[in-house]
Design a protein that fits this description.
Two copies of one chain form a homodimer.
Chain A (H helix, E strand, L loop, with lengths): L17 E13 L3 E8 L2 E8 L5 H7 L7 E10 L12 E12 L16 H6 L1 H4 L3 H23 L3 E2 L17 E3 L7 E3 L5 H9 L4 E9 L11 E10 L3 H20 L8 E3 H8 L13 E2 L1 H4 L5 H4 L3 E7 L7 H12 L9 E5 L5 E3 L7 H11 L6 E7 L1 H18 L10 E5 L4 E4 L4 E4 L10 H6 L12 E6 L2 E8 L4 H10 L4 H14 L7 E7 H8 L30 H6 L2 E3 L7
Chain lengths: 589, 589
């Protein structure tokens, strides 16, 4: 037996017992006559003590050779500490060591195994197994385990059945790029890794499974932005004989249960916001509702006063930065520079300051009277001490620009703390969006999402199809889309029409999705579902910006695992067996 | 709302309530004045009733158009049945229908949606979504869900943390063939899909996770025998600071918990059998211990009596088919033909019959006296009425041949019922096995398994390494290996030596497993683990021979999913982006 207790287990009640502990050396303090060792494992730290001339001589000798991260087994007796440490769960006791066995020595780690480490990102990724030894990183993965556990318990209690869908499936041209897998047994042919189990979960509904879930790896071969991973995990769910309302209630229940059990926080009822309102009041489809600062439109109020910029604009819209009237010229210039950054692209920023003394001043005083400014302030419901910030331009660009400004201000004003949570459902997304470049309609969610108005969908002229909304919904927490789904099409002719609109020929639709279209002819029930981004959900619960911290072995932005050095070349024999060859590679710059 | 209750929910207490049900038409009986419909969903069947002239006329009209597998919503009132059906949970009531809405009609399914179907294997796989609608198939997947749930609950309660390891990893030449995935972002390079998360779980132990588990998809590009799948699922586990005994106890606990909760069966303590004894007494490393019939060796007893076959044999070994003395000549000939089949390859079968009247007769009476036969019978502990069956030859072939005969007899005698369970641990496997063809040692388990005797491993001459046993163990249930694992090497020099023995150059070892070897230098703890074949485990619990019945969307023996028609060709643009091309394909025969 390599241990009788873990390093987090011993208490006053164990005093006098002979115990065996195993763990890592966190610290050694050698005071000459006395040596103390902090022994660490996943469960805690226990202080070991050796006294010169009293303990086992051999143990003292070994203790003097120990370094950080050595792995030991020690035997000894639990004694009460003279100087107790109330900050440690084991702080009342220490173990008087009789024998030490070193399982493994350790080289000096390339960075500090502490919450506040000196290791850079690349070094920590290369030695991920040491990075994971840091308490703060392991806690993220423990949280992930908890989120999975609570999710499963909730869904189990609601009669969902966990079903595994295949990983080796078929490549489809719609959507993001697939990872593909050459088949040795079927030369010249390829499997694809799933971007989601969408069609399989729909088939399970046709099969009468009624309620399905899976916590499942999905894959997308996309150019990776800072916070994407080529493989990611979804909580994937589907229900039969339900309408949108049933799905929203079921998964609002899940999220509230998660907040309660994982964060000890009672999430209030999750409000619902129309997509159109989200765009109108927040300029984006995933508003951060931890703070207000909703958009206020001034178009009707400020045009016709000879201010050319406003008169030429399609929309004039602003936010009220409450309490910011004291912003200096420099601070306002910073905000102006912020919105003029190329990534945001605004032409300029108009401000109206409602000074504490009640006077109004603006960057456009030349064009607007005190009276004008008063009615603007009234529209903003501004009070003395507030600062109104206004953008103008075309609708399509201006709202997203103001969204960026609003978020920036929210951050500056401390209105977006990581330990505050605000969730909402965004509903009634458009069904289709127009691809300017490709000159065709694209499914905003995916091709299996049902239109709200089937009649309109079947009969509206092609160019007006953008008016139709979908039975689609997203859950947004703190401005991050954590999940989304839709009520699905379950009628073959409706699905055919959708594929046709999306530019599939009947032959292509049959080749790609014939099995699903066929299934719809054998008694497909109404069904709907959704998927949560599991990595993202965990990062929200963990109060972190990056999902990478919640994945045990993540890949970098080039899709590489720098620890195992993957991907890598494979041997020619392997390629021969798969009937593939590599083409001449692109020239490196 | 599409339903107020499921089709399995209504009881006498609901009589008088207005309800809405949704489901599939299982059966329609139209008796002229009355129509009955069995409406089915996952939860059960509810009888619907419509009475001509009393109900809604429109509903009657719709009812007359319904076919099997149509999907409906019905509204009506729960009434007490005149003729109750005690076999159905809803058999006390029926629903008097006021309105019917058809969600979807259904074509006639290509096979009967019943437990006893007329659909052949290929047809059912092509329409797997209809096959899954059969109660018997869905129950298999519900059982799978249960096994997963109990497994997670058990491991959670023992402080295991579920950690997801990556699916896109690195190809390694050792072991079975990898599936590979070309990397677009790293041209000319490939990921591999994991055959198991072995190295990652070991790294998690180095990271101090202490106890890890995962129910995880693994992949092997092997030529598929009847009951293999290219993607399969493992319950994968690893523990730190444990010895073999700790692991056996922990996972024996899991299996007993599973039997208790899933089958309602108290599995007795799981016995342990040495690999050497399994070979000696059963001729295989996964004996079916639902029945006895252990091997009895006669070599010393029967040689030197001028029977050339026995005298030339390395081993003479048999089994006692208790109570089979009545076997006819024809039955014995069948058994002889059985062992002489090319797949088994015995030269012949010797029998000794202990007749009910106490006389002994054999197929080798020419060489053996009554006295000889008596001492043979005594060695078998045979009684009047028994039949002894004996094979002779070299040890390596004869034992496996007798194993086949033993299993065949067990089946014939009804000693292997699917609802009886016998589990055992097989321990002390050899560490290495000699590859005759390759003229080198192979790891019997895998290269990370530790030798029982490290000293011997480091110092025995090369040709004697086969004598060394491993800290490796398999769990066998009813003659099927359901899981296995080992105590791992955690010392770099020992691991280096192992790689060297397995024919790795130091450079190859570093290129393939450098990250693990490096990790061993930063304080690797003693650790051990195991993995259960999850599909296999489910099939055992379900009393089935094939794992395919316990996988929602399995592939056929050519690795194809015939429902979605995968794998398939991909478009040239996709291949260009991946810098790969297909080679000229092999000529089809």
């Amino acid at each position: 037996m390599l241990r009788t207790h873990t390093c987090g287990a011993l208490r006053m009640e164990h005093v006098g017992q002979d115990v065996t502990l195993s763990g890592w050396v966190a610290r050694v303090r050698d005071k000459g006559g006395m040596i103390w060792i902090d022994l660490r494992d996943r469960y805690g730290i226990t202080q070991l003590m050796l006294e010169e001339g009293k303990g086992n001589k051999e143990a003292i000798e070994i203790a003097r050779t120990l370094g950080r991260e050595y792995v030991l087994k020690v035997q000894g007796k639990v004694i009460e500490r003279v100087a107790k440490n109330p900050k440690m769960s084991t702080g009342d006791i220490e173990v008087k060591v009789a024998a030490i066995q070193v399982f493994n020595p350790s080289k000096v780690p390339p960075f500090l195994i502490e919450d506040d480490t000196d290791g850079g990102d690349e070094l920590r990724m290369r030695y991920r197994y040491l990075d994971l030894r840091r308490d703060i990183v392991r806690q993220n993965l423990v949280l992930r385990h908890q989120v999975a556990k609570v999710t499963r318990a909730y869904l189990d209690s609601h009669q969902f059945i966990e079903v595994e869908t295949p990983v080796l499936i078929k490549s489809t041209p719609e959507g993001a790029r697939d990872f593909v897998v050459p088949s040795r047994m079927n030369p010249g042919q390829f499997y694809a890794l799933p971007q989601s189990p969408q069609t399989f979960k729909q088939l399970l509904m046709v099969s009468g499974f009624d309620r399905y879930y899976q916590i499942v790896k999905c894959f997308r071969d996309e150019d990776l932005r800072a916070d994407r991973q080529p493989e990611f995990t979804q909580i994937d769910c589907e229900m039969s004989f339900v309408e949108q309302e049933d799905v929203l209630n079921m998964f609002e229940g899940l999220v509230r249960q998660l907040f309660k059990e994982v964060k000890g926080f009672d999430l209030p009822e999750v409000p619902r916001m129309l997509y159109a309102d989200a765009m109108k009041y927040y300029g984006c489809d995933k508003p951060d509702t931890r703070f207000g600062m909703r958009f206020v439109e001034l178009t009707d109020l400020v045009q016709g006063k000879n201010f050319q910029v406003f008169d030429a604009a399609e929309i004039i819209v602003g936010i009220n930065a409450t309490g910011c009237a004291g912003y200096t010229r420099k601070e306002i210039d910073e905000l102006t520079d912020f919105v003029k950054r190329p990534q945001i692209g605004a032409k300029g920023l108009v401000w109206v300051r409602y000074a504490a003394d009640g006077t109004l001043k603006s960057s456009v005083d030349k064009f607007y009277t005190e009276e004008d400014l008063k009615s603007i302030a009234a529209r903003f419901e501004a009070k003395p001490g507030d600062l109104m910030l206004v953008l103008a331009g075309d609708v399509k660009s201006t709202r997203p620009q103001l969204n960026e400004l609003r978020l920036e201000l929210g951050s500056r004003l401390g209105l977006r703390p990581k330990d505050k949570f605000s969730a909402l459902w965004v509903i009634d997304f458009p069904l289709l969006e127009w691809g300017e470049e490709e000159k065709r309609w694209f499914a905003m969610h995916h091709p299996f999402t049902s239109p709200k108005d089937v009649e309109a969908f079947m009969h509206l002229p092609f160019e007006r199809l953008g008016e139709i909304n979908a039975n689609a919904y997203d859950m947004v927490i703190n401005g991050v889309e954590v999940g989304g789904g839709s009520v699905r099409i379950y009628d073959r002719s409706l699905q055919n029409k959708m594929f046709e609109l999306l530019g599939f020929t009947p032959e292509e639709a049959k080749a790609q999705f014939g099995f699903l279209l066929d299934a719809f002819e054998f008694g497909a029930p109404p069904h709907a579902g959704l998927a949560f981004g599991f990595d993202r959900l965990c990062s929200i619960f963990g109060g972190a910006d990056s999902i990478r911290d919640f994945i045990a072995f993540p890949k970098n932005n080039s899709g590489r695992d720098v620890m195992i050095d993957s991907p890598s070349e494979i041997n020619p024999k392997q390629m021969d067996e798969l009937y593939i060859a590599t083409k001449p590679l692109p020239q490196k710059n």
